[in-house]
Amino acid sequence: MATDLYLTAGVGFFTTREFSSLDLDGQLEIDKIDSDKFHSYIVAPVGIKYYMGSFFISPEMGIGWNTGNRTKSHFYYSDGSQIENISDDDINLHDVNEMTYPLFLSFGNEIKMKNCCVMLGVKGYYSLNPIGNEYYNSGHYYGFGVIGGVKF
């Protein structure tokens, strides 16, 4: 009987996003500032993949190295005008952690073709450490997304 459990490892690119909104009620003629902060990492996950027929479940733990941080801010003024500002921040700006430790849980289906497999599924993630120190009060990042790929 063939085994249905496999060790997995890989390397990937991972980006998290955090949103903040500051309501200034017209102070300095600014009503509100909305900011999206993007944190990018090169991640090396290891885990296991368990197959139940063509369906799979795969828990993984990774280590990631920060490769960059970007902030996109929208300033809303009292006169109705808006300004957008995009900045590429230094890796250590505002005490962003240089390393992250994400957990992943994937499940999906592998559809076998003639020379390859098409993978479709869902992946959730949660960080074991927060994005940064005192400046970032959002805590641990988390989320989910879809998986699509081809396995040769």
Topology record:
Blueprint: E1 5-9, E2 12-23, E3 30-52, E4 55-77, E5 82-89, E6 99-100, E7 102-112, E8 117-127, E9 142-151
Antiparallel strand pairs: 1-3, 2-3, 3-4, 4-5, 4-6, 4-7, 7-8, 8-9
SSE series:
EEEEEEEEE
Averaged pLDDT, please?
A: 87
Overall morphology: elongated
Radius of gyration: 20 Å
Number of strands: 9
Helix/strand-derived category reads mainly beta
- Beginning-to-end CA distance, first to last residue: 23 Å
User: How can the largest sheet be summarized?
Assistant: 9 strands, antiparallel
Low-confidence stretches: none
How many domains?
1
Helix content: under 10%
Strand content: over 45%
Count of helical stretches: 0
Write up this protein.
This protein is mostly beta strands and 152 residues long. It has one domain (5-151). It is 0% helix and 69% strand. It has no helices and 9 strands. A hairpin with a 2-residue loop joins strand 3 (30-52) and strand 4 (55-77). The chain is elongated. The two termini are 23 Å apart.
